[in-house]
Design goal:
about 110 residues, 5-stranded antiparallel beta sheet, 5 strands, globular, binds guanosine-5'-monophosphate, binds zinc ion
Length: about 110
């Protein structure tokens, strides 16, 4: 996946402001934040989107979901937070390496 921006960030070839990393994921600040806190939770493994998920990814996905409240707490988002997963061009996905947006701080607009 030589062309994938997030694979390059995972590999450290492109710098990012990491706030968390473990054996399955890295978490870094979005370069164009849409809220005071805007993190991207990115698996080390290249999976293009939710559409490519298979049963072998169940453990990874559970890990990503359970990490979110822990990250939110550490970012001081006591009031709550928003998570977004864009899927495909119709869903507004721009980087085709699965990621979860974690947003918060201040009052986010409704949908
Ligand atoms: P998507 O639209 O694919 O769900 O979200 C991609 C996100 O990646 C966008 O919010 C965009 O601001 C962010 N992004 C794009 N390029 C970079 C980059 O080089 N570094 C970081 N940290 N974020 C990026
Ligand atoms: Zn990738």
């Amino acid at each position: 996946m030589n062309d994938c921006l997030f694979c390059k960030i995972v590999a450290g070839e492109i710098p990012s402001e990491r706030v968390h990393e473990d054996e399955q994921v890295i978490v870094f600040k979005d370069i164009y934040p849409k809220a005071p806190v805007h993190l991207l939770v990115v698996p080390r493994l290249h999976v293009a989107s939710l559409n490519e998920l298979a049963p072998e990814h169940d453990r990874l996905m559970a890990h990503m979901l359970r990490l979110l409240p822990e990250l939110a707490r550490k970012q001081g988002l006591a009031d709550g937070f928003r998570t977004i997963i864009n899927t495909g061009p119709g869903g507004g996905q721009e980087i085709f390496h699965l990621h979860i947006h974690l947003l918060g701080g201040g009052r986010l607009p409704g949908f």
